[in-house]
């Protein structure tokens, strides 16, 4: 594999007698969108959990920039420049949309709780900057006029965009998106695809798990296909679409 931006090397995760991820290997190049697709139960979300430290591999490893990160705590992996969204939207419903994005921006804050008491002017300046930065990411998501709206009252499509805006506020090097188009209508999915393309244009690397094949084929540089936790195909969208193993996995023999 050389020294790719992110590499999964013979990654395996077993839960008792069930092997959710089985000897999985692939690489993600910097500044690209790599999508992971596969039937339900193929091990895609478990793979995300292994990458981000929410699960420890049974064997194999994850490398980021050549450094082994598998087995580290989630907050340490996040500090390396990782951010993710979840299959089920994770927002703070009682907080406004702007406040939700500010939560992501606080990961870059220099003022801890103690310092905010002993140096209040510094804290107030930084808080103003965090608010301004959060407003910028809310605008990036096309939600500039929704900053004061409680996040829980937003439609699902806006909540998914909000979750991505909050992740981007942490200034990630790698953004992991877990089924961002789930539950969206055709128009919302189109907006989501455009947003992912803009994120790539900013130089942020994206690892995407998604079931919407039209979206995957539109935004991806490379596609990894998994079935029963194992890789069955890897290549460009055009190459994967013609792969007989992929056709068999999705359509049956």
Automatic annotation (TrEMBL):
InterPro entries for the chain: AAA+_ATPase (IPR003593), ABC_AA/LPS_Transport (IPR051120), ABC_transporter-like_ATP-bd (IPR003439), BCA_ABC_TP_C (IPR032823), P-loop_NTPase (IPR027417)
GO terms classed as biological process: D-alanine transmembrane transport; L-alanine transport; L-isoleucine import across plasma membrane; L-valine import across plasma membrane
Keyword line: ATP-binding, Nucleotide-binding, Transport
Domain of life according to the entry: Bacteria
PROSITE patterns noted in UniProt: ABC_TRANSPORTER_2 (PS50893)
Pfam families recorded: ABC_tran, BCA_ABC_TP_C
Span of domain ABC transporter: 6-253
A GO term for molecular function: ATP binding
Gene Ontology CC annotations of this record: plasma membrane
Protein name according to UniProt: ABC transporter ATP-binding protein
